[in-house]
Amino acid sequence: MRVPEAMEEPCSPDRRRLLKAIAGVAAAAGVVGGSGWFVLRRERNLFEVRREQTLMQTSVAITCLADDVDKAGVAIDAAFRRMADAVAVLTRFDPASPVARLNRDGHLENLSPELREVLQRSLAISAITDGDFDISVLPVLEYFESMRQPAVLDTRDRTQIGQRDQLINYRRIALNARGVRFTQAGMAVTLDGLAKGYVIDQGIVALRAAGIEHALVDAGGDVRAISGNDFRHQWHVGIVDPGNIDQIASVVTLRNAALGTSGNYRIFYSSDKKLFHVINPHTGYSPLNYSSVTVMAETSVDADAMSVAAASMPLPRLREVMAAQNDQWLVFSRDARNSWRSRDLPQVSGQAEVA
């Protein structure tokens, strides 16, 4: 990729806002902008190289800071290829995918390393959270997705949800050296609660393998940053206000860490947002503790899954479980008027009570 001596900022308003956001604050819920390549000179020998692409039905942006634009471009291409390969393995929407075959047949042998790793981590997080995270929620989730929108539950719906809730139990997923199988008929899994995080982590692996030390991957609310060993380089990441998604409620510093956010403000099935894409495995209904939960962890797969699990936890339990994992967090009340955070969350702006 050739870079002219005098760089000009892209002229469209959306692109100007996008570059300004990436240079200073990257919105955790996704930054709006055009697709393709963006190159911005940050210092004399430092460029910001960015590309955006659609993966997992969401906009994914990779931004690198590098002194060699060509090297950064090659690294970003490699990261997107590796991420796309992971999506193909973990998706439930492609009938030919391993996950779709597992759900259809109730068993699967000869697991790919990627699928085995994600299944192992999902079961471990289920154990850590006492089932607040559970990939076997798909029977209930599919029922929510099949309902006429906006959904209004009647007696029949509640009966169906109750019956399907009996199929949720991560302990009935048997994973061994030969493969994976369900020990109860009718079960099905979705990896949506941590697949995006795993895909982001694969992008980071590819970037590091290509020699990139400073980068940020933003996949529609899930973000991971690497900053090498230079403490002068850090990323400021904005967390969206669930009460007004056009505003940033909090900004945190991110260095060699990841953020995962789960909330009821983007995907929901009932007009009152009491039914949305996160399901409490213990009840079969969406948890109503918070409007948004953000977790900071070492990897995106953990931040993603723990934000889903935390949505079903009352505040005292959330605080206890996160402290045990050394994860930081920020939550907004159901009405989005109040917020609480862990003491060590590196927040640089925004108001949240330490809990």
Tell me the layout of helices and strands:
Blueprint: H1 13-23, E1 25-27, E2 36-43, E3 46-55, E4 58-66, H2 69-90, H3 98-105, E5 107-109, H4 113-128, H5 138-146, H6 155-165, E6 173-175, E7 179-182, H7 192-209, E8 214-219, E9 222-227, E10 235-241, E11 244-254, E12 257-263, E13 290-297, H8 300-310, H9 315-325, E14 328-333, E15 339-341, E16 347-349, E17 353-354
Helix pairs in contact: 2-7, 4-8, 7-8
User: What sort of overall outline do the alpha carbons produce when their principal axes are compared?
Assistant: globular
Strand order of the largest sheet: 2-3-4-8-9-12-13-14-15-17
- DSSP E strands, number: 17
Strand content: 25-35%
Structural class: alpha+beta
Number of helices: 9
Main β-sheet description: 10 strands, mixed
N/C terminus separation: 49 Å
- The radius of gyration over CA amounts to 20 Å
> Order of helices and strands, N to C?
HEEEEHHEHHHEEHEEEEEEHHEEEE
- Note poorly predicted spans: 1-35
What average pLDDT do the residues reach? 89
**Helix share of residues?**
25-40%
